[in-house]
Amino acid sequence: MKTRVLVIDDEENLRHMLRTMLRKNGYEVDEAPDGEAGFVLAAEGDYDFVFCDIRMPVLDGIGFLRKAREADFSATIIMMSAYGTIDTAIECMKNGAYDYVSKPFKNDEILLVLKKAEERERLKRENLRLRQSMEREYSFGAIVSRNARMREIFDLVRKVCDVKVSVLILGESGTGKELVARAIHHNGSRRGGPFVAVNCGAIPENLLESELFGHVRGAFTDAASDRAGLFEEAHGGTLFLDEIGEMPAPLQVKLLRVLQEGEVRRLGATRTTKVDVRVVSATSRDLERDVAEGRFREDLFFRLNVFSITLPPLRERLEDIPLLVDHFSRKHSEAIGKSGCRVSPEAMRLLAGYGWPGNVRELENCIERALILCDGEVLGPESLPESMRGGGIAGGEEEQSLSIKKAEERLERELIRRALDKTGGNRTHAARLLELSHRALLYKLKEYEME
């Protein structure tokens, strides 16, 4: 559709000139001799842009602007005048005008103003589309479930999203804890503020304090300039502390103080800074056991655990597997170039019968990999991992096939082995691939005697 422009001016020659020039450049143009007639046309027609003179009979340009603002016109209004001053331009902007051009003007000036206005409108539409997409993404649209327990969690999120209390999200790795944290943020009153996420187990202990609280120049060897921490970056929004159970003991004390006082002190600074931050934390560890064994501060646990949400593992919500398979198939098929690919009943049976120790994350990775391997329009068992085609385990006695704990151990061993092979034995890089803290990987290497 052509872009529609309305020209309002009491000079017939100028209206004729603008009409001819704009139509020549592909615009659809209507015209009016004064502000009142222009307002009637603007109210009846769906115009994209309005060029309006300031000095006119019946209703002048400023009067038209005020009436247009009261009527909430969507058109972008550009004012014109041969008697313009800075004060006049400012008054026009205050009353809702997008731009102001002085007469006489050249055709190129008008076309340039229009192109700038069109780009502005395109960016506004793009921002609106992205905002709507984000709302769909986190308004439970990305948390796919028909499970009764998950529906209860959706209700909990709705109740807590507008309340500024600390939320602790518990659950096994891969159950979607960050997704729930984002849903809390984007469905609440803080949606307009930043959402800042940090994995407490992925950052070395000597850097984590600076990352969270910031530093001033000279606070340590590499501190060449002042730097705000993540608490300050999250001001007015939400800070998501993932793997909070991996936080070193010395930082637990400082985190507790920030939560109690609502202020942070950068490393090397002498003053504190007030911060308005909603803290949502998550862990796959048993924090109560860590508290009992002295690995996690009890007072910090209580401060973080004002409101807790426990996510069930995928094996306890088996009715969601067909729904999730369909969701991930649609999500990844277009990007891979396999749109329209469907999962065969036999493949779905194998997917539904697997134990999923890696939970929803493992299922998504499995579907993405299977789509890449799928040659036709039907995703069959041959595209699934070999262990899954064998019933979800890598062999063993029948009673072992029913042991979720042993299946988890076998999967963890295999994933750790692959990560170490891929990184040439570099444990730090392997931990990053596995989405574990370096310390947690060392624990597992020792536990599985893989050192």
Can you put this structure into words, describing what you see?
It contains 19 helices and 16 strands. Helices cover 49% and strands 14% of the residues. Strand 1, helix 1 (12-24) and strand 2 (28-32) form a beta-alpha-beta unit. Strands 2-1-3-4-5 form a five-stranded parallel beta sheet, sandwiched between helices. It is extended and about 90 Å long. The chain has four domains: 4-125, Response regulator (Rossmann fold); 143-312, Rossmann fold (3-Layer(aba) Sandwich), CATH 3.40.50; 316-392, Helicase, Ruva Protein, domain 3 (Orthogonal Bundle); 400-451, Homeodomain-like (Arc Repressor Mutant, subunit A). With 451 residues, it is of the alpha/beta class.
Poorly predicted segments = 391-401
The total beta strand count reads 16
Helix content: 40-55%
What is the SS-derived class?
alpha/beta
CATH architecture of the largest domain: 3-Layer(aba) Sandwich
Rounded radius of gyration (Å):
30 Å
- Strand arrangement across the biggest beta sheet: 2-1-3-4-5
Name of the level-1 CATH class of the largest domain: Alpha Beta
**Strand portion:** 5-15%
CATH topology of the largest domain: Rossmann fold
CATH superfamily of the largest domain: P-loop containing nucleotide triphosphate hydrolases
Q: Give the biggest sheet.
A: 5 strands, parallel
Explain the layout of strands and helices:
Blueprint: E1 4-8, H1 12-24, E2 28-32, H2 35-44, E3 49-53, H3 61-70, E4 76-81, H4 86-94, E5 99-102, H5 107-141, H6 148-160, E6 167-170, H7 177-186, E7 195-199, H8 205-213, E8 214-215, E9 227-228, H9 230-233, E10 238-242, H10 249-261, E11 263-264, E12 273-274, E13 278-283, H11 287-292, H12 298-304, E14 307-310, H13 321-336, E15 342-343, H14 345-353, H15 359-373, E16 378-379, H16 386-389, H17 404-422, H18 427-434, H19 438-447
